[in-house]
């Protein structure tokens, strides 16, 4: 399965749980850690955990397993490492504080439609 397909599935899984302000950053030209960062936020701990659970479930059904998950218990910033795709799910306060979009501004911000072949 191609990385773009996996990223699209992850974005759809986040949208299914009402993720807000989803950003997809192509970092393939500036980093070797992954091809895409997907960043989203939720309004409370339960929603943020549900978003992470749904991504794991949807990707898992396609045989894509998460390498590592950090921050699930506190749910103010959950990091999900799927090797070529890294998903960051924040609460609003921590998203503003860490501002990954600014840190990774050399990456290319892409629209969901760009993932569809």
Largest sheet: 6 strands, mixed
Q: What sort of overall outline do the alpha carbons produce when their principal axes are compared?
A: globular
Q: Number of DSSP strands? A: 6
CATH architecture: 2-Layer Sandwich
Ends distance: 13 Å
Low-confidence segments, given as residue ranges, are none
Mean of all residue-level pLDDT scores: 95
Q: What level of helicity do the residues show?
A: 25-40%
Content-based structural category: alpha+beta
Number of domains: 1
Output the helix-strand order.
HEEHEEEHHE
Taking all Cα atoms into account, the compactness measure Rg is 13 Å
* Sequence of strands across the biggest β-sheet: 3-4-5-2-1-6
What would your notes on this structure say?
- This protein is globular.
- The two termini are 13 Å apart.
- A 6-stranded mixed beta sheet has the order 3-4-5-2-1-6.
- It is α+β, with helices and mostly antiparallel strands and 117 residues long.
- The protein has 4 helices and 6 strands, in the order αββαβββααβ.
- The model has no long low-confidence stretch (mean pLDDT 95).
- The chain has one domain: Beta Polymerase, domain 2, CATH 3.30.460.10.
- Helix 1 packs antiparallel against helix 2 (45-61).
């Amino acid at each position: 399965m191609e990385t773009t397909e996996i990223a699209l599935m992850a974005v759809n899984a986040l949208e299914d749980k009402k993720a807000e302000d989803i950003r997809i950053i192509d970092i393939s030209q500036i980093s070797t850690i992954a091809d895409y960062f997907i960043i989203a936020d939720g309004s409370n701990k339960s929603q943020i955990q549900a978003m992470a659970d749904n991504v794991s479930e949807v990707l898992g059904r396609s045989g894509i397993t998460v390498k590592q998950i950090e921050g699930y218990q506190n749910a103010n910033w959950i990091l999900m490492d799927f090797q070529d795709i890294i998903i960051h799910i924040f609460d609003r306060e921590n998203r503003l504080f860490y501002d990954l979009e600014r840190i990774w501004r050399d990456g290319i911000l892409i629209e969901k439609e760009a993932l569809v072949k």
